[in-house]
Structure formats: C-alpha cells, structure tokens
Amino acid sequence: MPKDYAAKMRIGKRIMYSLIDASGSILGGALVMLCCYWFFHFESWHERFIAIGLSVLVVYIIGKILPERPNQ
User: Fold this and answer.
1) What is the mean pLDDT of residues 38-67?
2) Which of 13, 41, 52, 65 is most buried, most CB within 10 Å of its CB?
3) Is residue 45 assigned to a domain?
4) Which residues contact 55 (CB under 8 A, 6 or more apart)?
5) What's the whole-model pTM score?
6) pLDDT of residue 41
7) Is the pLDDT score of 67 beyond 70?
8) DSSP string across 39-55
9) Distance between CA atoms of 59 and 64, rounded to whole angstroms?
10) What domain range is 58 assigned to?
C-alpha cells in the first residue's frame, strides 16, 4: 500500500466537507443579498445598522459552529 493511502479521507467525509463548503458560500451570498434588502427596506440609518449588524452576527456565529475543512 502507498504511504498516502492511510492519510487520505474517505469519500463520505470528502463529500460532507464539500457540502459544508458549498453551504458556507451560499450563506455568504445570501448575506450580501439580505444586507442589500435591509439597506433599501428601512428608512432610518439606525434601523439599517441594527438589521445588517444582526444579520452579520448570525452568519458569523453559524460560521464558527461549522467545522473547518482538514488539509487532506
């Protein structure tokens, strides 16, 4: 057996991490769209900053919960 064989991840884990990466990208794109919506939806700057700040905070917390992709 080659040396690298034992160090590589199984196909299931690779697929799972690929799906997590894709969901992170989709979440980031949704955040941009949501921030644009909040910017034009509210009339005062305070409302805009509160809504955009809370949206960014929620996405940041979700990003911290998701596991990081291993190097292999």
Assistant:
1) 92
2) 52
3) yes
4) 31, 34, 35, 38
5) 0.71
6) 93
7) yes
8) HHH-SSHHHHHHHHHHH
9) 9
10) 33-66
